[in-house]
Amino acid sequence: MTARAATAPPPPPGARPRHPQLNAEGKLTHLLTLEGLPAEAIEGILDAAEPFVSIGEREVKKVPLLRGKTIFNLFFESSTRTRTTFEIAAKRLSADVVNLNIGVSSTSKGETLLDTIDNLCAMNADVFVVRHGQSGAPHLIARHLVATGRHHVHVINAGDGRHAHPSQGLLDLYTIRHYKRDFRALSVVIVGDVLHSRVARSLIHGLTTLGAPDVRVVGPATLLPPFVESLGVRPFHDMRAGLDGCDVVVMLRLQSERMRGALLPSSGEYFKHYGLTAEKLARAKPDAIVMHPGPMNRGVEIDSPVADGERSVILPQVTFGIAVRMAVMSTIAGN
Ligand code: CP
What we know:
The chain is of the alpha/beta class. It folds into two domains: 39-164 and 319-333, Aspartate/ornithine carbamoyltransferase (Rossmann fold, 3-Layer(aba) Sandwich); 166-312, Rossmann fold. Helices cover 37% and strands 13% of the residues. It has helices spanning 3-7, 39-56, 81-92, 113-121, 137-147, 166-180, 198-209, 239-243, 267-274, 278-281, 304-307, 314-334; strands spanning 70-75, 96-99, 127-132, 154-160, 187-191, 214-218, 234-236, 248-251, 289-291. The strands form two sheets. A five-stranded parallel β-sheet has the order 7-6-5-8-9. Strands 2-1-3-4 form a four-stranded parallel β-sheet, sandwiched between helices. The structure holds phosphoric acid mono(formamide)ester. Phosphoric acid mono(formamide)ester (CP) binds at residues 79-82, 159, 168, 293-295.
């Protein structure tokens, strides 16, 4: 034990342990997960995103908030929306953006992830945006940065394994708030492959933290996590019953790349029971919105007339994603 640790005062009785994403002042310094993040921190990012939506509608879409900062996009898994919207967001904040080509980077030559991070820090990186197939990889990087005294370098989890996708969770929350205003009166239904979905996990944590009273998950038993009720949601296997009277429907893709063994008879059978059609959507409220994080598989989890219909907000989700990611980056770099 160090002398400093020996003389450090004990935490006051009842004190809550500090969240690993928060710095010594209690401010958000990394975005790793929405689990356990206080409602004020989530609401702060949603509020910060509002003006960035208007900036996106201007002719000149740039603001100088991150001028001089260097942001590295490290995507070890494929991405269309997340990687691109983080890049656009960083450029709109006037940062310099480097997209590392993982396929030809040193990790493919045997370099460890943390050695790659050390080398990029030697190039004066300010922010790492990380997508990785391994749950916990962004946490590992954040811990390494703290352990090596690089408190000024930030990590944003852009999706790790089946664990978390917090910026997607935030943009989903922003979209729901935009169309429905108050979380405290909402029924939100998440349909599909919840078991393998980091998107579902992050959204569930965000919704329950912001006080949504009725969050349901719908899917076959093979695609719902065991003890899913412990997350504060109600499970349904019958999609029509699960959709009854809801305000928001969130459809999920079947994550076949993360499935081991046959969890489903066929995609046709899946569509029959869990694909969102106009007939099934009629069980939701008449003004219910339809969301999907993408990529979308038409004819598997969603029918084209619904995906392209007037209740679909799937493309606005993408647009809001830029503003929300601008809010995330400016918030953590500002802290
Ligand atoms: N929603 C999402 O993560 O999409 P991408 O895989 O295209 O980034």
